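Chapter review: from sequence to fold.
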Amino acid sequence: MSNLHSFELTATDGKLIRGDRSIGRDRQILFITGFLSKRWGNKSKALAQWCEEKGWGFCCYDVRGFGDSGGTFTDYTLSDWIADARLVLNMMQDGLRLTRPPQALSHPPLHQPDPQARQDVPFSRGPSLSNQAPFPRDTPLPQITIVGNSFGGWIAWMMAQECSAVEKLILIAPAFDAIGVRAREISADRRKRWQDTGWMPWDDDPVHKDWPLSWKWVEESEAYWSRRFDRMRRVKTTLLHGLQDQTIHPRTSWQFVDELLVCDPDFPIELIFKMGDHRLSGPEHLDTFQRLVVDPT
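The token string follows.
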């Protein structure tokens, strides 16, 4: 795509978040990739192409510790990847500027509300990063659609609740509380080893065995999940999930929507099930994906 430009953002630890972006007009689309996935796959390539055809802006990036971004995987946890997403959103809201100065702590302490802080940023007592990279207040904000894939779907949900520039969400097989769910589903012996040693890969298969997760992932995941509906913005949201998904069971999306509508019966949310696995990468899935993205309604 000829209109794409690389960018680098410096995080608080000095490591670089690397990605690609086209400025575009009107609509801005941010793609947040899944766990252990680099930013360029079939979905992001398709998105970039559709955005180029429409003249829209597009952005994708790699989280710290993976892909082209700096840092070592084991140095980061969920709160860091949320901070990465926030920095990228800040950049997109800054218009033509492609970089921002370092801001944000890596692992925030418990904190009290700041009376001088913006009132549209939610306060929480867990690993919230709301005060670390505040959204700019002095310029008009472009309207942003976030497309979150798998683990990126959960991060997208959290970003949309705090960022007023996000007008639409498309969540593909969202992995809500994936690490917390994993900790609850494994055997008691394996869970105890994870707690005792502090480290465990998601699975022992070749894809995951060399990427150990600290127990802090579990603690943060459960803390964020416990506050998933504490303060909601009515962002038009669509969940797309494969019925044969064996990685993130489709019932997680059903349960999420059910719980959400109990909290807010008028929340604008749609749940679409399709025949397919976790990847939803077949031509028929991309056709559905395209309709969800391109249709402005």
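Two observations follow directly from the output. The beta strands are 5-10, 16-22, 28-32, 57-61, 144-149, 166-172, 199-201, 212-214, 236-242, 269-274. Confidence is low (pLDDT under 50) at residues 96-136.
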